[in-house]
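thought: fold this chain, then report.
action: predict
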Amino acid sequence: MVDDPSEHAELLLSDPDKRRAANRELTRLVETGLTEQHSTRRWAYYTLNAPVEVTIQPQPDTPERQILAHVAQHGTIKRSQCRALLGITEVQARYLLHKMCDQGLLRLEGTRRGASYRLP
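observation:
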């Protein structure tokens, strides 16, 4: 990997095909208005014309957050409800709910078919 920009230039200048391809790309960027060329020939440099917009996508709710929201709204959640809510298997639901109990996020009430999970 090349870290020094001058090494990039040396690599580019050493291969005429790469140099021509880079010039074509830069010319196309200037023609489309995305970049602006400053100066000419050897000392030319380019800047972006349009401001760069950074968009941050919100993270989807984690399964734990979805379960906690369900319990906060409905009071309890059963394993079958967890499966339906998250679209996961029986084993995955059991693992997730037990993990949340171990972390102190939920409390198990009842056993077997009557088992439900509540906020502590």
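thought: worth noting. Helices lie at 5-14, 16-31, 63-74, 79-86, 90-102.
final: tokens above.
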